[in-house]
């Protein structure tokens, strides 16, 4: 087995040969160099540590094992300020030549579409990082969030009526009642 350490990996690789040879590539990339990933962030700072390993499963299926570790600075959806979250990926990818082969893969493998020209390592790493991002990034601790006090108070009933005017949304409460009670 050969291990190669790269600050920046080669542009492309053949995943089938990589798996057969038991190849390993590893390195660290600045987040700012991953354009598609960086545009989703609050600030493209830090780096992504990565490792790819070629493997075969018990059935002889060729695989690419991907490990990624990053701490991207995302935008908190409560305060819109920066929040740093840990993102880790540990995925087994099975190379396929056509999308029609994806349903035939066992559930534990993700398909890796690879043409005659091989697979772009940058695109592969970016795709896995993007998939690993949370749908909604938020500060876990209220004290860290600039929005502060974001927890909603419990409601004890319909909204209070101001100035003696009826609540225009009061009729909606009848829609929320159980149909068996009506």
Radius of gyration: 24 Å
Number of domains: 1
* Spatial strand order of the main sheet: 1-3-4-5-8-9
Structural class: alpha+beta
**What share of residues is helical?**
10-25%
Instruction: Report the count of strand segments.
Output: 10
Mean pLDDT: 84
* Largest pleated sheet: 6 strands, mixed
Shape: elongated
Low-confidence runs of at least 5 consecutive residues: 1-7
Query: Gap between N and C termini, in Å?
Result: 71 Å
How much strand content do the residues show? Answer: 25-35%
Helices and strands, in order, run as EEHEHEEEEEEEHH
Topology of this protein?
Blueprint: E1 3-6, E2 12-13, H1 15-21, E3 24-30, H2 35-38, E4 47-56, E5 62-70, E6 73-75, E7 82-84, E8 87-96, E9 110-113, E10 119-120, H3 121-132, H4 172-176
Parallel strand pairs: 1-3, 8-9
Antiparallel strand pairs: 2-10, 3-4, 4-5, 5-8, 6-7
């Amino acid at each position: 087995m050969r291990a190669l350490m790269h600050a920046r990996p080669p542009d492309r690789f053949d995943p089938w040969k990589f798996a057969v040879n038991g190849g390993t590539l590893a390195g660290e990339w600045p987040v700012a160099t991953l354009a598609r990933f960086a545009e989703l962030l609050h600030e493209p700072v830090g780096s992504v540590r990565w490792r790819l390993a070629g493997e075969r499963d018990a059935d002889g299926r060729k695989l690419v094992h991907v490990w990624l570790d990053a701490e991207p600075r995302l935008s908190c959806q409560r305060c819109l300020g920066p929040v740093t979250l840990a993102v880790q990926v540990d995925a087994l990818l099975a190379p396929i030549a056509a999308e029609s082969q994806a349903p035939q893969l066992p559930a534990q493998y993700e398909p890796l579409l690879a043409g005659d020209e091989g697979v772009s390592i940058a695109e592969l790493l970016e795709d896995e990082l993007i998939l690993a991002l949370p749908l909604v990034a938020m500060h876990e601790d209220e004290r860290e969030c600039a929005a502060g006090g974001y927890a909603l108070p419990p409601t004890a009933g319909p909204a209070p009526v101001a100035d003696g005017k009826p609540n225009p949304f009061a009729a909606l409460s009848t829609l929320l009642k159980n149909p068996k009670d009506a």
